[in-house]
Amino acid sequence: MFNGVLRLISVSVQGAISFLSEIWGKKYAVYQLVKRDLKERYIGSYFGLAWALLQQTLLVAVMWFVLQFGLRVRPEGNVPFLAWIVPAMAVWVLFSEALNTAANSLISYSYIVKKIHFKLSILPLIKVLSAAVIHFIFLFLVVLVLLIFGIYPSLFWLQSAYYFFACICLVLGMSWLASAVMVFFRDLAAGIVILLNLLMWITPIYWNMEMIPPRFRILCYLNPVCYLTEGYRRSFLYNIPFWEDALWGFYFWGVTFCFMAAGIFVFRKLKPHFADIL
Amino acid sequence: MSDAILQVRNLTKIYSLYDRPIDRLKEALDPRRKKYHHDFYALKDISFDVRKGETLGIIGKNGSGKSTLLKIISGVLAPTSGAYRVNGNIASLLELGTGFNPELTGTENVYFNGTLFGLSKKEIDERLDRIIEFADIGEFVKQPVKLYSSGMFVRLAFSVAVNLDPEILIVDEALSVGDTYFQHKSFERIRQLNRQGTTLLIVSHDKNAILSICNSVILLNAGTFVMQDEPETVMDYYNATLSENTGNIIHQKTTENGKIQTISGTREAIIEDVALLDTGNNRVETVNVGQQVRLRIVVSSTTDIENLVIGYLIKDRLGQSVFGTNTCHLKQNIVELKRGESYILDFKFNVDLGEGSYSVAVALHTAETHTTKSYEWRDLALVFKVVNTDKSKFAGVAWLPPSLECGHG
Fold it and tell me: Which of A98, A126, A234, B214 could form a disulfide with A240 if both were Cys (CB 3.0 to 4.6 A apart)?
């Protein structure tokens, strides 16, 4: 049993290394595809990526207004409400945008799947990376809001890179799984939209974890996305290092590992059939 | 074979066909594992080798599995069983302009397309001038592709593909794109690649393209391997199979000079003799350029035939058609044959051909072409040689003597 687990880990680490080195070899292709993905999204519009910024700003503004003045949500500690929601929103938008588009990636790139011999596992990654680019634009907004409220940069801000990386890993595993299954079962697209909608409210993004009784709070800890949203807050607002809650970190990486392993396994298993079905 | 760049062994591709889409799900969930699909063999047990530098043509009717085969070799589709091994990098032109985005400019699309084929930025940088020059679309290269004419679009796409410099290039029906000038140019480029040692796999319905560039041709029919041989032999056989009538018998035999002759048809009318005669009624095998000859065809029949059309086709060394006609095209009265009768036809013409060896195919059929009902089609019915004894030196397959007028303008 123990040996089995050990072997599984070593095999997946080897797989991950060979996968990463293969992607590194194709970095120019990845760069081109991401660039084109972003271009396609905002092509023909005069403001281009400015639309992404505007969209995010409006979202933040509406949420701020509704939650602070409508629902009167109280942030944790002595932090202005707007400054409190933006970091969590940033990572949430990254997660949901990446999963939503990456799950559909094989279908939207069907012309590649059907016509060209290509490393197909890159395709979900492309969508995740272009979501990451939009995320960086959102981060500008986060920094701007924080500065306006007089919260000044600290070294802990750099810790957000760790949570960013964690988010990419989690969403990548889920994307491989979802995109491969989606080819066979398109109804999954609707399922993912519902899942994301539920997750948006289950995760303490717009409400404070302290608001629910401590015995139910474990439910929040079980949600891996909560690790990310809280992590961004800890980095930008509370200056709490990520190792302070090591147990939660282990749990998160365990879940991420499971998604990664399942994603890679299912993707590999179904890959030969993609071109037949699309 | 050690020098095989591509080895294909027992390749089989089965598609599961479902009558209704819901059946796929039913089958996946059925606890008794009941089958809801039936198998369709797109390819059945295909094996062959391709040597380095060879040009292999793949022909067959629509739906015979040509494209499926190329897709598997390209690595796009996975075979159901069997294996293939490729010793080199492959570029495949399964469809021109895959991934071209109408909103991006020509140059941007070149970069993107090149990337999909696995080239690095540096490699594309090196090729960019060549690609643009070959496509020859002028300043349009800086414009979005949506402004292109369809001809410009395929020219650019083709140009990218042939300038990728792969070791194996797979071309699926992409040879005849653009205007005539560009077709010549692309054809020349394919030849050049071949001379440089690129291995080519070509699917085409263009008979002359296959005959002139392939070393070897594979004929597929309904997913099965029919034959692999020299282009002319396979083409003749394929041509014979196109006749739709029942009772069509095809057989091939080796002639004295080692060529393979294809004879097909129902044999209701038979070609008794084919001869090339000079003006003195002597049989000849070697003729001078421009010499007057008669092609004599003797026909007999085993049944009453009302409307027999007799035709012939002169082909060059590579099997490319040089000239062909028949009694129907010549507005000749329809030949009627009673059972057991024989009939002699003489086609008189001047051999205005270039030096070289030519063959004559003779056909007996009903309508204008042989595909409706063919009594007999005989390839390589006659082989003759053209030599130049008294004309000025010239090049090419035709004798078109000019008169010269010139002077200082």
Answer: A234
Instruction: Closest CB to B76: pick one of A28, A36, A116.
Output: A116
Residue A258 lies in a domain: yes
Q: What tens digit of pLDDT does each residue of B21-36 get?
A: 777 767 766 777 777 7
Q: What is the pLDDT of residue A93?
A: 92
Top residue of A28, A35, A110, A114 to mutate, by most chain B CBs within 10 Å, is A28
B247 has pLDDT over 90:
no
ipTM over 0.90: no
Nearest CA in chain B to A29: B115
Give dist(CA B196, CA B246) in Å, integer: 46
Mean pLDDT of B134-158: 86
Name the residue type at position B126.
E
**Helix, strand, or coil (residue A6):** helix
Is the pTM here over 0.80, yes or no? no
Residue A184 lies in a domain: yes
Closest residue of A to B70, CA-based?
Answer: A115
* Chain A residues touching B101 at Cβ < 8 A: 36, 40
For A272, the domain range is: 33-277
Mean pLDDT of chain B: 84
What's the gap in Å between the CA of B108 and the closest CA on chain A?
10
The residue of chain A nearest to residue B124, with distances taken between CA atoms, is A28
Q: pLDDT tens digit string along B377-393?
A: 888 888 898 988 888 88
DSSP structure string for A122-154? HHHHHHHHHHHHHHHHHHHHHHHHHHHTT----
Domains in chain A, number: 1
Its sign, for the CA torsion A260, A263, A267, A270, is positive
